[in-house]
Amino acid sequence: MRMRRRRPTEPSGEPGRDIARLLDDARALLREAGVTPAELSAVGISAPGPLDRARGAVVGPPNLPGWRDVPLRDALAEGLGLPVHLENDANAAALAEWRFGAGRGFDDLVYLTMSTGIGAGLVLGGELYTGSFGNAGELGHLPIEWDGELCACGQRGCLEAYVGGAAWTRRLRACTPAGSRVAALAGDSAVKPEHVVAAAGEGDPFACEEIERFNRYLVRGLTALVFTFAPQAIVLGTIVAAAGEGLCLDPVRTDLAARVWPLLGRGLVVRAAELGERLPELAGLCVAFPEA
């Protein structure tokens, strides 16, 4: 049985209130499914990093204001009366795509979240690689422009400040020409990356320039990734998956191949994530049952 409830990432700034809302949603889903907590074996939570995995704490994600050293695992376990397992959201998504989606069949895989922020999950040698404190893979905070755009993490020039969804949205709202197709598609609502993707598909010059800029900065991050980890496959999430082959994937593959050694680029697969709307639930499942 599958029950789903989806909310936008809109933290209140008060972790206690946010956790209470998560618990309310979980209990409501159980009621809708006609299931009691006692019938469940475990709960899996994927949360943005950095995390302290040993303590099950969210340490201070750039896109969750107010969340500083929050014991999320224990708070949810107490509220639900169940074992709760906590994992970085990019790691959890990497496991899901590796087991069920675009990463099947690869022993060395990197998955990139491409939504509000940018994170990477690393499957190396057929195992999830988490590094010190479970926080390996923070590719979004790789500097690609010294002293560049201010990132939500407080540093400057991070990849996330150029291709993260939140940062790109802020840029678009400041620079989208009133007469562009992007503005027309947004209408009375605020401009978002999906409006750029749609307008670029129609050939709008401003949108095409924005997509080219996005691709160019993304390749800077991917080049460092390939030289560091030499993966068999790179799986790219939300924004790239929505933009598709012609606008994003083909140009990124071509540019990336020109910037890495032929030995590292030979056979390298760059593809969009496959799980779509199912990713959050399958990621949580992989966290709850990591050995399944």
Q: What key attributes describe this structure?
A:
45% helix; 13% strand; Nucleotidyltransferase, domain 5; 11 helices; 5-stranded mixed β-sheet; alpha/beta; two-stranded parallel ribbon; 2 domains; 292 residues
Structure report:
The protein is α/β, with parallel strands linked by helices and 292 residues long. The protein folds into two domains: 15-89, ATPase, nucleotide binding domain (Nucleotidyltransferase, domain 5), CATH 3.30.420; 102-274, Nucleotidyltransferase, domain 5, CATH 3.30.420.40. It has eleven helices and nine strands. It has helices spanning 15-33, 72-80, 89-100, 160-163, 165-175, 181-186, 193-201, 205-229, 238-259, 262-265, 279-288; strands at residues 43-47, 51-52, 57-58, 84-88, 109-114, 118-124, 127-129, 233-236, 269-272. β6 and β7 form a beta hairpin. The longest helix is centred in the C-terminal third of the chain and has 25 residues, at 205-229. The two termini are 18 Å apart. The model has no long low-confidence stretch (mean pLDDT 93).
Order of helices and strands: HEEEHEHEEEHHHHHEHHEH
By DSSP (H or I, 4+ residues per run), the number of helices equals 11
- Mean pLDDT across the residues is 93
Can you tell me the residue ranges where pLDDT is under 50 for at least 5 consecutive residues?
Answer: none
Rg, alpha carbons = 19 Å
Top CATH class of the largest domain: Alpha Beta
Task: Map the helices and strands.
Blueprint: H1 15-33, E1 43-47, E2 51-52, E3 57-58, H2 72-80, E4 84-88, H3 89-100, E5 109-114, E6 118-124, E7 127-129, H4 160-163, H5 165-175, H6 181-186, H7 193-201, H8 205-229, E8 233-236, H9 238-259, H10 262-265, E9 269-272, H11 279-288
Parallel strand pairs: 1-4, 5-8, 8-9
Antiparallel strand pairs: 2-3, 5-6, 6-7
Helix pairs in contact: 1-2, 3-11, 7-8, 7-9, 8-9
